[in-house]
Write a structure and sequence with these properties.
The chain is of the alpha+beta class. The chain has three helices and six strands. The longest helix is centred in the first third of the chain and has 18 residues.
């Protein structure tokens, strides 16, 4: 299994009036998991910005909500690379409570040059590192 797993606890602030995780908060959990995935690979986003003028932005999300998460649940949020592009990475993500899949998503992130505000290829040394470490 090549999934990276990040643990998240559901707090009151994550829930709606019914005590269920508000739908947009699943996206926050997934964003945090992707950040921790990069960090786990030794890649810090401020360094990418400073050294390469590069930031990763969400280009596209397809999401499916299956079951609710509630206050105090301990969630596993996964990151699994499905496709490598020159200036993008397509990632499958899941939010699980134990073995129950609560939410699934496919997220395409794009590498953007912060000066030109245009797509930029992921530096080869970063891409090689991510590919090597993802296997």
């Amino acid at each position: 299994m090549n999934d990276f797993v990040w643990l998240a606890r559901v707090y009151y602030e994550d829930t709606d009036a019914g005590g269920v995780v508000y739908h947009t908060n699943y996206l926050k959990f997934m964003e945090r998991a992707r950040t921790e995935w990069l960090r786990d690979k030794g890649i810090e986003q401020p360094q990418l910005k400073q050294q390469y003028n590069l930031v990763f932005v969400v280009r596209q999300v397809t999401i499916d909500y299956l079951k609710p998460a509630i206050f105090d649940d301990l969630l596993n949020v996964t990151v699994n690379v499905k496709k490598w592009g020159k200036a993008s990475i397509t990632i499958a993500q899941q939010v699980l409570r134990d073995t129950d899949i609560l939410c699934t998503a496919v997220v395409k992130i794009a590498a953007i040059n912060i000066v030109k505000h245009r797509p930029q290829p992921v530096p080869i040394e970063i891409l090689q590192r991510l590919r090597k470490l993802n296997n």
